[in-house]
Amino acid sequence: MVISIPPIVIYIITFFMPLILTFIGLPFHIRFMLKKGIFGVDVHKESKPKVAEMGGVIILLSIILTSIVGILLVDNNVDRLKIGLFCITVLIAGIIGLIDDIIRLSALLKPLLLLIASVPIIASGMFSPEPVLPFVGKTRLTIVYYVLLPFIIAVPSNAVNMLDVFNGSMALTTILVLVAVFFANMIIFRGGIQNLDLTYVFILMMIATLIAFWFFNRYPAKVFAGDTGSLAIGASLGAIAVLGQLEVVVIIAMIPFIMNSFGIISSVRGLMERREMARPTKMTDDWKIQATGDSKAPITLVGLVIQKEPLHEKDVVKSFSILTFISGIFALITAVLIWLVI
Amino acid sequence: MVGDIMKYYKIANRISKIIGLEAFVFASFIGICFLINALIVYIPEVPTKPGINFLLAAVKVGLGLLFVGIWLIIWYIITKRLMKTEKKTKSEKSSAS
User: Fold this and answer.
1) Contact in structure between B18 and A323 (CB atoms under 8 Å)
2) Burial letters for A242-254: b for 16+ Cβ neighbours within 10 Å, e otherwise?
3) What is the domain partition of chain A in residue ranges?
4) What pLDDT sits at residue A340?
5) Would an 8 Å CB–CB cutoff place B14 in contact with chain A?
6) Would an 8 Å CB–CB cutoff place B84 in contact with chain A?
7) Strand partners, A290
8) Complex ipTM above 0.90?
9) In chain A, which among 128-187 make CB contacts under 8 A with chain B?
10) Cβ proximity of A256 and A301 under 8 Å
11) What is the pLDDT of residue B43?
12) Ordered DSSP codes for A19-82
């Protein structure tokens, strides 16, 4: 006899499990990394503190373990496969990030490798090549969607990575994006949490992991996510977009991330590593972040935010969260427009 | 709590131009969807002639990409201008002082 577990129980488990795992795992990780000498120096602070690197490893482990439990909890093979696909996609992106954290991949190779992360989803065919656009309704992209799919995973992955520059910025903004996508899913598919919708499972899993991570990554940070964390989290957003048929909503909710990446790529005319570019910011005597004014420096979101006057790191993160909160509202408006045509 | 809200309000005021750019990005995306709905979906389908049908589908995708291309170019120009305007204001301020 197959015991069917109520959806609410699955939601609760997939929320609290990664929350507790990340919360317990990170202090051990921080101690271990500092002991092994794997740390970064926080250049935005006067004391130049040593901060443990690769906190993303714990994020990744939490997601894998919660996904395994999720697979055991659901009662049909399609859902099991979907959870497995989500987990593998995030895992591939995380491993690419881990490699980058250890041996430093080139600016071109990293996004190219990230295209691989979409292969399991493409191979499984567990997606609908009909993204819904406001006014237009369902579009039949078929072949074009297969071409676009790798980018739907790789672009958010890189975009999140590019905005992971200040204490707590990546975690806080991604939580805001996920909350907006959660409610957008409710609007578009008119689904409450009384039925099992895996999109909610994925979103809750990511929000919980990120809340726990933010606790250690907020100002003053005790741990950095590294590329392991930022690429995995970005890939999870892409996977949620594809598996949940929320492509447009995720894009809109991620406008600040896209603005940042678009500014960098268009101003340096191509892909470049952070260390190869002219620095867009410098520190003032009172440890605020100031624009360097270097014409060769890329146009970044932080560059735009601090154009008027130097800002403290905490205020820059607050600016990012305001921009993401507004894009979240735009995502909800988009969800309503989509709901009107489906 | 009130102090925090005031702080956020102050920061929001400071980044009003970027919020404007964000609103532009969103509004123009919605505008593109409206245009696609108004123009592209009216390009007919000819299921009896697969060759022509494929060409028409390619035209639809091409037009969609053209709109997106124009959108990205305008977005880039505005971002560049925003950077320049801010730099100008800053240098004017410093020369005045």
Assistant:
1) yes
2) bbbbbbbbbbbbb
3) 7-252
4) 92
5) yes
6) no
7) A282
8) no
9) 133-136, 144
10) yes
11) 79
12) HHHHHHHHHHHHHHHHHHT-EEE-TTSTT--EEE--THHHHHHHHHHHHHHHHHH--SHHHHHH
pLDDT the model gives residue A222: 95
| pLDDT value at A46 more than 90 | no
Pairing between strand A289-291 and A281-283? antiparallel
Q: Is the minimum CB–CB distance between B26 and chain A shorter than 8 Å?
A: yes
Give the model's pLDDT for residue B44: 78
3-class secondary structure, A147: helix
Structure tokens at A239: 């996977």
Mean pLDDT of A9-23: 96
- Paired strand residues for A223: A52
- Say whether A304 and B86 touch across the interface (CB within 8 A): yes
Rounded to an integer, the average pLDDT of A165-185 is: 95
Total Cβ atoms within 10 A of residue B96: 6
Look at the block and give the residue holding tokens 């809750």. A204
Per domain, the residue ranges of chain B are 2-96
Percent of chain A with pLDDT over 70: 97
Residue A179 tokens read as 């909350």
Three-state SS at A291: strand
The overall average pLDDT reported for chain A is 91
Instruction: Please state, in angstroms and rounded to a whole number, the distance separating the CA atoms of residues B64 and B54.
Output: 15
pLDDT (mean) for A274-288 = 80
Type of residue found at A220: P
Would you mind telling me the total number of residues written for chain B in this entry? 97
DSSP 3-state assignment of A222? coil
Residue A52 pairs in a beta bridge with: A39, A223
Averaged pLDDT for residues A59-72: 96
**Rounded CA gap, A187 and A205, in Å?**
20
pLDDT classification of B97: cutoffs 50, 70, 90: very low
d(CA A174, CA A254): 8
Q: How far, in Å, CA of A168 to CA of A183, rounded?
A: 23
- Residues A258-284: what's their mean pLDDT? 79
Per-residue pLDDT band at B87 (split at 50, 70, 90): low
- Sequence letter at residue A337: L
From the candidates B19, B22, B94, which should be mutated to test the interface with A, based on the most A CB atoms within 10 A?
B22
Strand ranges (DSSP E) for A53-161?
Answer: 132-133, 137-138
Note whether A185 and A244 are within 8 A (CB).
Answer: yes
Which are the contacts of B10, defined by CB distance < 8 A and separation ≥ 6?
A: none
What are B52's two structure tokens?
């022509």
